[in-house]
Amino acid sequence: MDAPLREPIARRAPAEPRWRAAGLLRSLGPAYWTALPAQPLPEVHWVCRNQALAAELGLGDWLHGDAALVLLAGNAPPAGPPPLASVYSGHQFGLWAGQLGDGRALLLGEIDSPLGPQEVQLKGSGLTPYSRMGDGRAVLRSSIREFLCSEAMHALGIPTTRALAVVGSPQPVLRETVETAAVVTRVAPSFLRFGHFEHFTHTAGDTVALRRLVDAVIDRYFPECRDAPAPLLAWLETVTRRTARLLAQWQAVGFCHGVMNTDNLSILGLTIDYGPFGFIDGFDPMHVCNHSDHQGRYAYARQPGVAWWNLHALVSAIAPLLDHLPEPAAAEQLAGAIAPFEDEFDRTLQARLRAKLGLATTREDDPALIDDLLRLMATERTDYTIAMRRLGEFPTDGCGAPGAVPQAPRRSVRDLFIDRAAFDAWAARYAQRLRAEGSVDGERRARMHAVNPKFVLRNHLAEQAIRRAQQGDFGETERLLKVLQRPFDEQPGHEADADFPPDWAQQLQVSCSS
Ligand code: AMP
Ligand code: MG
User: Fold this and answer.
1) Which pLDDT tens digit goes with each residue over 15-60?
2) How many CA atoms lie within 13 A of 471 on its CB side?
3) Which amino acid residue places its CA nearest to atom 13 of ligand 1?
4) Pocket, ligand 1, Cβ cutoff 6 A
5) Residue 316: exposure state from Cβ atoms within 10 A (0-12, 13-18, ≥19)
């Protein structure tokens, strides 16, 4: 029999990143950065690669080539102009910290991609003029955490910087113990933070540079504000609304950032700088994920208030640009620009929570129904992700509620509560509310499962991947990435990743050390 006819398989050269001659920061000039190369690392190897993102960026199989490894290790310069470390300042834990800047990050440059122009940044690529007391490095542990969580957040539909790859090296790095170095490649339209704006007002005292930065940012990232009667105020209002929506999304999914300093808040409303973050296991509004945060400043329930505080820091940095206005007009206008925060946050959060409960319509007493569930969960420290997911199985005719038809599903949400009477009282109200809008179980379940993730990056999952990676086995990181990229899918065979945290997870301490 003839061999089947085949077209010859063309061997294409891998797509290369197409570097743009000048990104936004570079075009602004050296008041905003220092150009310098990365510091090479010895014996570099891939830890993990994000093929899905490479494809989105139009990079095809570029990540398979050696050129990508040496570039993303910081061992070869990009084909375009030299890398930059940018300067910023910021408030850390409520106090003015002065100049900070990219102490271990380097902007390789900006590439053209199907997602639009994207900045490509190495984190952990060595000393910069902004390293202060640091060593310019990132360790394997924190790099894997950042890589996995940025992709998990993206898959959850939450705005975030992305992670393209992690490169490892045996080079020792001293933290609490000796660890090894790694470099994360991050991708975002911009890595500008609130702190970049604070820098030019409070550190450099250079209103001209501040004005140029603001104008360029509005022009490039907020073109819809350009033609507003007051572009500056329209821009601040847009940043406010984006930040409010981001915070509502964090709260709804149970994400704690851990270090919400003004230098860690993105001007684009992206989740940025994954350090001691955590997803809530047992629901505790005062949960503090960062072991170094002794005061609980960045506790879960305080995050929206901190974002609001940070927006005040941002407007106070922008205030010099309105100093042509008589007082109190400038202060009033600035306050007016960020005033929509609370409303935007509340509206977004309520919409998210209603969706999580599968409520298709809006009723006056919905907030009380939602609040009472959260209070009950807080009292019992009910696992937030599991409870919300199981709620999708809740039958409209009740789930143990008085008079309910006893057809509780296999893994009932009711089983999660110790105080059955308290849950049943709530469940009766919920069932009634669902019936009132004619909710159909199967249809509602599908809607709820599309918003209540089955899989989030719990600390112990990251820890398991890290421990294996520290032994040189990167398979678990890759496996976990694939699971987290489909957080709403059932993914049979991966039940362990959706289970309660094991007892040993309680001993895990995540601090600023990274
Ligand atoms: P972070 O807490 O990671 O957001 O970092 C706060 C500031 O410290 C930023 O300016 C970082 O660039 C800098 N930084 C953190 N870790 C290091 C390090 N190992 N070496 C140099 N700079 C660092
Ligand atoms: Mg930071």
Assistant:
1) 889 888 788 999 999 999 999 999 999 999 999 999 999 999 999 8
2) 9
3) 103
4) 100-104, 130-131, 134-137, 259, 264, 273, 275, 512
5) middle
In eight-state DSSP terms, residue 271 is B
> Could you give the number of structural domains in the chain?
3
Nearest protein CA to atom 16 of ligand 1, as residue: 134
SS3 108: strand
* Angle in degrees, CA 195, 200, 201, rounded to 5: 95
Residue 512 pLDDT class (50, 70, 90 cuts): confident
Q: Indicate if 263 belongs to the active site.
A: yes
Section 97-121 average pLDDT = 97
Residues 50 and 116 in one domain: yes
For the chain, the 3-state helix, strand and coil shares in percent, each to the nearest 5, are 45, 15, 40
Cβ proximity of 120 and 191 under 8 Å: no
Do both 60 and 107 map to the same domain? Answer: yes
Any idea which ligand is nearest the CA of 193? 2
The residue annotated as part of the active site, out of 66, 102, 263, 273, is 263
Taking the C-alpha atoms of residue 409 and residue 342, their distance in angstroms, rounded to an integer, is 38
Whether residue 36 sits in one domain with residue 173: yes
Nearest to 207 by CA among 99, 317, 310: 317
CA 192 to ligand 2 centroid distance, Å: 11
Q: Is 329 exposed, middle or buried (0-12, 13-18, 19+ CB in 10 A)?
A: exposed
Per-residue model confidence as pLDDT tens digits over 211-254: 999 999 999 999 999 999 999 999 999 999 999 999 999 999 99
Question: Are 209 and 110 within one domain?
Answer: no
| pLDDT tens digits, 220-230 | 999 999 999 99
Residue numbers of the domain that contains 393: 363-449
Distance in angstroms between the alpha carbons of the first and the last residue of the chain: 62
* Alpha carbon of 136 to ligand 2 centroid (Å): 13
* C-beta separation of 453 from 385 below 8 A: yes
Q: Which of 420, 416, 419, 423 is nearest to 373 (CA)?
A: 423
| Ligand index nearest the alpha carbon of residue 86 | 1
Domain assignment present for 4: no
Indicate which atom in ligand 1 lies nearest the CA of residue 135: 20
